[in-house]
């Protein structure tokens, strides 16, 4: 099985914190990094060094979506705090669902929250990739 990870994070979150969040979220789903096909996030993270480094180092494609695109995706854990700061009620869940071109039935890990040693927060959502997934960049 291949999966797409939706990623959300504080500004300037380290790659180490992102990787720790990913590993713990994968562990919840009894998966390893070998299952990862790609990453997805909000377009406001296009310059996020930790996220870009993570994608590059592991050769995982990284897809970005606008707040408007993400806001139209039904998710189980919308957040008013995320809406206030990002303009959408969800980043990780919505981005993963969009990238996988699917709905909540393929959501394996809803929204795993992690705070790293750098005191930065990261969220990871894991969505089962359908064979006919289309990436709506």
Question: What descriptors fit this protein?
Answer:
single chain; 137 residues; alpha/beta; Nucleotidyltransferase, domain 5; five-stranded mixed sheet; 5 helices; 5 strands; 33% helix; disordered C terminus
Outline of this structure?
With 137 residues, the chain is α/β, with parallel strands linked by helices. 33% of the residues lie in helices and 26% in strands. It has a five-stranded mixed sheet.
Task: Provide the domain count.
Answer: 1
Largest sheet: 5 strands, mixed
Q: Which strand-content bin applies to the residues?
A: 25-35%
State the share of residues found in helices, binned by percent. Answer: 25-40%
CATH topology heading:
Nucleotidyltransferase, domain 5
Structural class by secondary-structure content = alpha/beta
Elements, N to C (H/E): EHEHEHHHEE
The dominant shape is: globular
Read across the widest sheet, the strand sequence of neighbours is: 3-2-1-5-4
The CATH top-level class label: Alpha Beta
Q: Uncertain regions: pLDDT < 50 for 5+ in a row?
A: 133-137
- Specify the CATH homologous superfamily: CobE/GbiG C-terminal domain
State the separation between the terminal residues, measured CA to CA.
23 Å
If classified by CATH, what would the architecture be? 2-Layer Sandwich
Task: Report the count of strand segments.
Answer: 5
As a whole number of angstroms, the C-alpha radius of gyration is 13 Å
